[in-house]
Amino acid sequence: MKVAVAGCCHGALDKMYETLELLQRRHNVRPDLLLCCGDFQAVRNEADLRCMAVPAKYRHMQTFYRYYSGEKKAPVLTVFIGGNHEASNHLQELPYGGWVAPNIYYLGYAGVVRFRGVRIGGISGIFKSHDYRKGHFECPPYNQQTIRSAYHVRNIEVFKLKQLKRPIDIFMSHDWPRSIYHYGNKKQLLKMKSFFRQEVESNTLGSPAASELLQHLKPTYWFSAHLHVKFAAFMQHQTNSKEELPKATKFLALDKCLPHRDFLQIIDIEHDPSAGDSLEYDAEWIAVLKATNSLVNVTQSSWNMPEKNGLHAKWDYSVTEEAIKEVLEELNHNLKIPCNFTLTAACYDPSKPQKQVEPVHTINPQTTEFCAQFGLTDINDRIQQAKEEGSVRGEYEEEEEEEEMDSTGSAEEPSEYNTDNSGLSSINPDEIMLDEEGGDEDLSTCSVDPSPDHPPDFSASFSDIRIMPDSMAVSSDDAMDSTNEELEKSGVSKQVEEKSLNERPLKRIGGNENGNSGIKKIKRRNQAIYAAEDEDKTE
């Protein structure tokens, strides 16, 4: 089957789906599935905008609300993960995944599903060491700290995914696995993005947690976004025994969604012709969720996952075939994910703007049903209980001053990872930079387009923008021939360029937070990045 993969969507759903329709008209190619690697921005209303960790001037409604309201429907099944520019309050309603709109499915903090026999996994958010060992304690209304920490990857999600033993076909992460750039055309990458050089040479660019998952899961494909550049790599995994067959992962990072930018890729994936067209639960993943349910934590206290170090009575939470069979029996061997999308918030009305509406913590019926069906803890219900008891809010107020530190500092014990550069500590002109210390942005303000039919005038003015050629090399020593051949064999098709949708460029909303590798922290008002803002209003 044909799978379309997109990078950072930034709420531009109309543009994504129009590009797919254009592809079908011009080339008679119709994808069966669309995957989006984060920064999806499922913004329903003005309150959701206030829960996005971007400066106020970048908070625009975009077009997701039309799909949420039912005015439009996604023409192709869409599965996505979260990034670092999301309506965190909306996605938080679905920690185990669920429908954000008809035909649009969110994988949750971490998740695995099946479509036509193809096993698809993913982990949402980006890595930050100072939040990695905390529980999911955040809830709206967020403050300057929690609006960021809400999308930071947690060790419990990585631990759950590491319990999987069955092969994964496709895996998605928002930030890149650390070190993956050593398995592709590193010279070409640094030629396009010279500001990556320090992190690449020190091997600190990317997520160490994602790298750990890559080495453990060894999926056939791994897709990422976040850094707004297209990059391919081919990683041959080491075998643990003579009997184990060699495995390799084809990695692809996608660009962001902008006119005339190469933000879509079409991949041919082997599938089960006898499987249905419905999105399905993965029985092993459900069994893992049940097995690890006792580890759920909704406090901001740091803690380590169980490991074989003499401190834990149990450290292996992988599941047996019998446990998987029990899940199948519970579902009567019907793994189809119910189409139980429910509106949980008022939808944006361009004729009646409500800029002062406050975000609220919501319990989504989909999550309630899912947890009841499989005997799982409803994380949001647990947070609500903790709030009522005063524990979560009280703990936060006591530690608030300690949280006011840079992106690598923490009042907690050191992370198991000693570096923290899932984003960039050097300047990336293609990213929105956020000051971890809070700074001068007011979370209570947002900018809403008066009408989706009359968007503001945006113009792109980037100092280092190039399109990655088809011949992007993918070898650890930058030798191009052998690994390009491997990618061609794998079914990675030529990239899709949209050239004539006659729409104005989207504003640049992609970005990340910054680690600390000895470079002074980047502030929002950095003139080197936003030199053209006064003229163009936005990049």
From TrEMBL:
Primary location class: nucleus
Keyword Metal-binding (UniProt): yes
SMART domains named among the record's database cross-references: DBR1 (SM01124)
Compositionally biased intervals (Acidic residues): 396-406, 432-443
Molecular functions per Gene Ontology: metal ion binding; RNA lariat debranching enzyme activity
Subcellular location: Nucleus
Compositionally biased intervals (Basic and acidic residues): 486-506
Cofactor(s) this protein requires: Zn(2+); Fe(2+); Mn(2+)
Biased composition (Polar residues): 416-428
Domain of life: Eukaryota
GO biological processes: mRNA splicing, via spliceosome
Sequence ranges assigned to domain Lariat debranching enzyme C-terminal in this UniProt record: 235-380
InterPro entries noted in UniProt: Calcineurin-like_PHP (IPR004843), DBR1_C (IPR007708), Dbr1_N (IPR041816), Metallo-depent_PP-like (IPR029052)
Ranges where the record places region Disordered: 387-462, 474-539
GO CC entries: nucleus
CDD domains in UniProt: MPP_Dbr1_N
Annotated keywords: Hydrolase, Iron, Manganese, Metal-binding, mRNA processing, Nucleus, Zinc
Family: Belongs to the lariat debranching enzyme family.
Name of this chain's protein: Lariat debranching enzyme
